[in-house]
What we know:
This protein is an alpha+beta fold. The strands form three sheets. Strands 1, 2, 3, 4, 5 and 6 form a six-stranded antiparallel beta sheet that branches.
Amino acid sequence: MEDTEQTTQESYRYEALFNQASMGIIVVNHKAEIQSANPFALALFGYSLDELLQQPIELLIPGRYHSRHVTHRDGYTHNPKTRPMGVGMDLFAVKKDGSEFPVEVSLSNYEDEGKQFIIAFISDISIRKKAEAEIEELNNKLESTVEQRTRQLTAAMQDLEQSKDELSKLLEREKELGELKSRFVTIASHEFRTPLSTILSSAYLIERYTTTEEQPRREKHLQRIVSSVQLLTDILNDFLSVGKIEEGKIQVRFSRLDIQELVSGMVRELEVTLKKNQELVYHHDGNPIAELDASLLKHIVMNLVSNASKFSAEDGRIVIETSGAPDQVRLSVKDNGIGISQEDQKHLMERFFRAANAGNIQGTGLGLHIISKYTELMNGTITCVSELNQGTEFIITFDKRAAKAISSSGNI
């Protein structure tokens, strides 16, 4: 009786999610015939539910795209997976009154009683497209203004030769900050889209699994939601860290710590974040006492282990090694993953850089940049040893004497 009541409550909850979602949700069968549509989708396209049921999905697509869309959706039906639709393309939908509007579409799928269904999550991006056009126009005006300003500054620099170097640095800094903000907006928009779609599709699919026997499926989608939220948190933390670094707001607080104890505690936390069957091993040699910033050091270790896990196979082995000598502390994180080419290693610490073989592995390209800056703040150096398909090792060395001198002087 309790299971029945719980199932009913869950059904009401996810029915409410379907009905109250602030994006269009349309479910079609394997023949691409519309089986369901939420109120937001009906309002978006101007149809009643009865007008859409059993109609081909092409009803909602401009006629000039029908032939190509049939080919694409047949391909998706044969190899269904959760993904955004039409990456790099401008997608359009058509309303009942014949008017067209730009959309973003994410696809997911599920099986019910042996039948395959596809879910389309549809967002009207007309406002965003209009804003992008306005921003582009504004950028053009700003570029013209910057060009005019540059000409004026150049004329002034001829009369103020002694200020030439300082003015050049200011102009370069202004341009660099503008590019940085633009990259932040672009990457945030792209990186947030996939985890948010995953969260919504998983929440919707959980509704379908109502029996006790389907608990493993519910747990699978709950884990996808947790992982996606963690990914969003990591991305936000990276952006916040880079912002603080650029503004010079990172304060280093050196303290006497036991590096072996600190990393051993982190290993237990990190093990639960690894891929299936991955192994995390830790070794320490020598004196474990060091003067470092515990918070920055934890961030460095977590980021290096996260990267090692992402770029290694499910049965990969990750080794952390620390050692303490009279004049230095050494940290190493080594994996047997896909490796990094010699050419890409030259750019690893740059903002937003992604190695050529990173493929579809998610990331912002900020992690190693942040690590390098944190390492510099603690008077350390970072080295990468890697070959393609032969794994990667990052080695960080901290100078104990310099750290102690900085800490005692308070000049941080």
